[in-house]
Amino acid sequence: MIDAARIAVLTGAGISTASGIPDFRGPQGLWTKNPHAQAMFDIDEYVASREVRVEAWKFRVAAPAWTAEPNAGHLALVELERQGRLTGLVTQNIDGLHQKAGSAPELVHELHGSVRYVDCLSCERRIPMADVLPRLDAGEDDPACELCGGILKSATVSFGQSLDPAVLDAAVAATEAAEVFLAIGTSLQVYPAAGLCDVALRAGKPLVILNAQETPYDEEATTVLRTPIETTLPALFS
């Protein structure tokens, strides 16, 4: 059990696997099973290749995020917030399940954006994904911006794109305000998300890692747990 009064949380794909959303680097991960899929998440490949965009839109249409429900791990973090102990919920996930579970949007810092919105790469217009998916159902395979004709892309951060500075600043502030930093379901290999562990460690804050596989920060962590997230988190905050 974690009894600290102020806890900052970082979540990765591992918290959503119990909701039916595969991770990227795990044994059954998207990139493990299909390394070529990484092209869909590279901004240069996406912009340069219509074929990559067509495959990316097929992936979005079939994304399990549309039907997935939050699991006990997500709900445990809602309980942590209810207890008044959550300084911030920083997530690498783009599925929106934290908000769907009931986490306050102002406490959820989506470092890698959200699949629930679409950006035009030319005019920077942002619209709901729900406004674009029907165009795919109607036969378009690479829908363009209806205002300027530019390339449309989910409002997620691809390799080669910069994170939103305001979101990153909020994530750092939440980490600095906490007594304990808890990393859940993340390989801690992607920066700057993983760098939040460094922020916590430099300040002498305990680092707790809950992840199925080893991470580069295990040796520096105060506690490392390999148990299932959906059963472990509720016990940590009860």
TrEMBL record:
Entry GO MF terms: histone deacetylase activity, NAD-dependent; hydrolase activity; metal ion binding; NAD+ binding
Sequence positions that bind Zn(2+): 120, 123, 145, 148
UniProt enzyme class: transferase
Domain of life: Bacteria
Residue ranges of coiled coil: none
Signal peptide residue numbers: none
EC identifiers of the protein: 2.3.1.286
Keyword Hydrolase appears in the UniProt entry: yes
Every Deacetylase sirtuin-type domain range: 1-238
Active site: 112
Claim: NAD is one of the keywords in the record: yes
Keyword tags: Hydrolase, Metal-binding, NAD, Transferase, Zinc
UniProt-listed Pfam families: SIR2 (PF02146)
Protein name: protein acetyllysine N-acetyltransferase
